[in-house]
Amino acid sequence: MQRILSFFTRHAATLFFPMALIVYDFAAWLSTDLIQPGIINVVRDFNADVSLAPASVSLYLAGGMALQWLLGPLSDRIGRRPVLLAGALIFTLACAATLFTTSMTQFLAARFVQGTSICFIATVGYVTVQEAFGQTKAIKLMAIITSIVLIAPIVGPLSGAALMHFVHWKALFGIITLMGLFAFIGLLLAMPETVRRSATPFSALSVLRDFRNVFRNPVFLTGAATISLSYIPMMSWVAVSPVILIDAGGMSASQFAWTQVPVFGATIVANTLVARFIKDPASPRFLRRAAPIQIAGLAILIAGNLLWPHLWLWSVLGTSLYAFGIGMIFPVLFRFTLFTNDLPKGTVSAALNIVNLTIMAVSVEIGRWLWFNGGRLPFHLLAVAAGVAALFTLGGLLRRVRQHEARRAAVGE
C-alpha cells in the first residue's frame, strides 16, 4: 500500500493530472458532439424552430466567454487548483440539469452553463499544463491531449446516432454527467498547484490593469488573431453542418455522423505527428510548412463547391485538409501566445479565450445567416476569408516572437 501511495504521489502531476484533464475536456466536447446528430430531435421535442439548432453551439461558446474575465485573474491570485475543481463541479451539475429541461429555452440555458467549462479548461487547465512542464514537453503533451480529446467529435456523433435508436436524447447527458463526476474526482486527487497565492488583492482595478497590459502586448494580439481566425472554418462547420446535411440534405443522423470523421480525424493525425515525430515543433520552418496544407484545403473547399455544388463531398474534404494543417500548429500557437511575454499567465489565457470565443461565436451566427440567406457557397466563403487572413497573421506572429527572443537574449547577455 505504501508503495502504491508513493507511486501515486510521484506521478500524480505527470500522469494522473493530464488523464483527469483529458476526461474533463473530452466530456466538455462530448456535450456538443454526442447530441449533434440528435439536435433536430431536441428542437422537435420542444416544438421549437429548426433555426435554433445551431444556437446550441453558439450559446455553448457564449458560456465559454462568460467567466473568462474572472477566472484568469482569480487563478493568478488564489491558485489554479481551486478554480479548476470548481469548474469541473459546475459542468457536472449543468449536465445533470439538462435531464430535467422541459423547453428549448431551458435546454439552451443549460447549454450556456455547460459552456463555462471552456473557461475553466482553457484558462486554467491548459495553463497548468504549460506551467508544470518545459516548452517542448508541454507542446507535445498538449498535442496528445488534443488528439485524445478530438476523438469526441468522431466518436460523439457516431455514438450519439447509435444510442438514440435505443434511448432518449436526455440519456446522453446522463452519460456526460458521470464523466464529469469522474473528472472532478480525478482532479481532486491529482491536480498540482503551480502558482503561489498572490499578494495582489483581487479587485476590479487590478483585474482591469492586468487585462489592459495584456491587450497592449503586440505578440498577444497577433497570436490571438491567428488562433481565432484559424478556427473559424472548423467551428462554423461544426455548428451549421447538421442543418446543411440533415435538415436540408436529407441525411440520417448516422450518415451525418460519418461525415464528421474525416474532419476531426485529420486533426487527430496532425496532433499525433507533432507529439511523436516532430523534434522541434516550435521551429518557424515547421510552422511555415503547414501553410500550404491549409491553402490546399481552402482551395478544394471553394473550387469543389463552385464546380460540383450538389456534392457535399468537397465541403468535407476541404475542411478536413484544412483541419490537418491547423492541427499541426495549434499547440505551438498557444504556447507562443501564452509565454512570449512576462504577463500573468491566467490573465493572458483568459484574454486569449475571450477573443477566440467571441470571434468563433460571432462567426457561427454569421455562418448560420449566410447559409439560410445565401446557401452553401457564401457559407464557405466565410471559411476561406478567415483561413487566408490567419496565414497573414501567422507571419506577423513569427516576426514578433523572433523579435521578443532577440530582446531577451540581449538582456541576458
Automatic annotation (TrEMBL):
Q: Does the keyword Membrane apply?
A: yes
Q: Which GO terms describe its cellular component?
A: plasma membrane
Give the matching Pfam families.
MFS_1 (PF07690)
BP GO terms, sorted: xenobiotic detoxification by transmembrane export across the plasma membrane
InterPro entries with a match to the protein in the record: MFS, MFS_dom, MFS_trans_sf, Sugar_transporter_CS
Predominant cellular place of this UniProt entry's protein: membrane
Question: What is this protein called in UniProt?
Answer: Multidrug efflux MFS transporter MdtM
Q: Name one GO molecular function term.
A: sodium:proton antiporter activity
Question: For the Major facilitator superfamily (MFS) profile domain, which residue ranges apply?
Answer: 17-401
The places in or outside the cell where this protein is found are: Cell membrane
TM segment ranges: 12-32, 52-71, 83-102, 108-129, 141-165, 171-190, 219-245, 257-278, 290-308, 314-338, 350-371, 377-398
Gene name, please?
mdtM
Keyword annotations from UniProtKB, A to Z: Cell membrane, Membrane, Transmembrane, Transmembrane helix
Membrane topology annotation: Multi-pass membrane protein
